[in-house]
Amino acid sequence: MLLGSLSSCATPSQQATVAPKRFVEAPTISAKAKAKYGDEAGGAYKEIADFVLDQSERSELLDPARTTFTSEELTAGLTGHMTPAAAATYEGLVARALAGDPASEDAVQALRFYKLQAPGLTLPKDGTALDSQTITGATVDLVAAKAGSIDRLKISFDHVTRINLLNGKSPFPGTIENHLDFTVLPAALVPTPKTSSSTSSKNAAPSATKATNTKIPTTPGSSRTTAVAPPTVPSSAYTRDPSAAWLISQFDGDVDVSFDRGPSPAPTG
Questions:
Q1: What residues does 250 pair with on adjacent strands?
Q2: Phi-psi sector, 54: left (phi>0), alpha (psi -120 to 50), beta
Q3: What sign results for the dihedral spanned by CA atoms 101, 102, 104, 110?
């Protein structure tokens, strides 16, 4: 999905005159977030924004003709940016999504969009569905922790992706809109879990003894989510992305897909 290194921070007025393939609007950072983390609060936003631009949509997963997907396709590049507990929960969501659970499908699509329901549409001949991405309306706030815990940042923004598909030979552009909320904490303060033979195998069942902040949907068909008590160790060997200075402990997304010309292809199912 990578669209090069065209991401930038700019003001709304600049956005009107410049239309790069990637646009990242400067965030509003609360006074409390600045007081706690200083310039690192802005750095956390940039890291999460780049993470979403790099990882959220991939052309090969936007093919309406595809009906099967793999766990690797829905986790690669994502879990290394999460806390171990969040990674374990996300792996569980992916497993349930691939088994057909609608609520889990919605939760996974908040981080990696797949299973585009647009019968009759096809990818362009070059296989590239992605056109442009923008991140706007961003805020960074401090989430005060209880005594003895780590103060976290809540990063929220709107992520809009323009896609190009074909209806026969005619262009059929569309838009994926996603409002995202992330709770993140400094990676340096998160210990890497110890693994054993029972937890490092991809086929091993993870422990489920401790709650995490990662969320899953409350109702089928909705991407709004609520906290659950998931595994604390990923079922596969957990490897933190070395580039991650901040780790996601909680995420929430609300995804909507629309097409420019009507009627839109009828959803299946």
A1: 183
A2: alpha
A3: positive
